[in-house]
Design a protein that fits this description.
mainly alpha, two-stranded antiparallel sheet
Length: 338
Amino acid sequence: MKNPNICSQGGVRIWYWDNLKTILIFFVVLGHFLIPIMDRGNSIMASVYYIYIFHMPAFVFVSGVFSKKYMEKGAPQLNKLAGYFIFYTIYKTVLWLLFCYYQGQAFKFDLLSEGSAPWYLLAMIIWLLILPVFAKLNFTSGIILALFIGIFLPFSDSLGIFLSMSRVVIFLPFFIGGYYFKFEYIEKFQKSIYKIPVLIILVLVAIFVITNMDFITRYSSLLYADHSYAFLHTSVGNALLLKIGWYFMASLMLLALLILCPKRKFCFSYIGSRTLSIYIFHRLIREVFEGEYLYRYFDSSSFLLLGGCMIISLLIVFLFSGRRLAQLVNLPFRITKK
């Protein structure tokens, strides 16, 4: 299946996707900074749950959108795959060293098992490797296959952090959905008449999260997508309903973001083309932030903690989106290119 390049038109960059990636990377950073303190108040816990409903499904969706370029150049592209693996190995090693340092002991290093932030880089390798299979299918067949995999494979108790397979499988429908997505879809439904309804959807989801904290906490492992259904400790029927419900809610929020995201260039739009450097470095900063417990400077109330984390996340997004740093993190892709 051939897809037009919707990341640029006539050699001109489409700022819509950069704006969307900028918004999403901010939520990725904020979510990671809130996780260690989510027990410090309902406002923080609700923020974490709200973010985790949609932020990685949406980010994986955008990764699927940009995978069109991968298929256009012919797959497999060894330099792309090698670049991701080099990044994954370095990223995982540095995080492991920081974790051992702050824990005061050495833990086993397992290169092929990952449940923390580097999982995304490992997952990208696997998604790109299997993408040619979906490229041969039409939209309906591909989505049905991806949903079947995402819904039913987590019944296997062996599905976990090895090769990040749990997240590879569970987020697969969003990646494949992004691959099939065409820019003209946005042109059709990004109209002012839809903006109020999708804003209402975002508000209703927020109300659902706030009023169902105990329920979400009980099944929170579903949002983190790092284990099989066995970790939900519920019946088969409930597991299916929970998974389908989360897919539906995440898709609605993704749709809302696609409709609300602006298309024109802003002073921050460039950040969207440099999200990899932010993704790599923010988690290292978070590890130091947690290890040194720098949260204490915003520790007087949960709202101050939440506000402090939002400010820090914004600063990190801007500080680690510099052009030279972006060039540095792209180096593995260039040196592995034939």
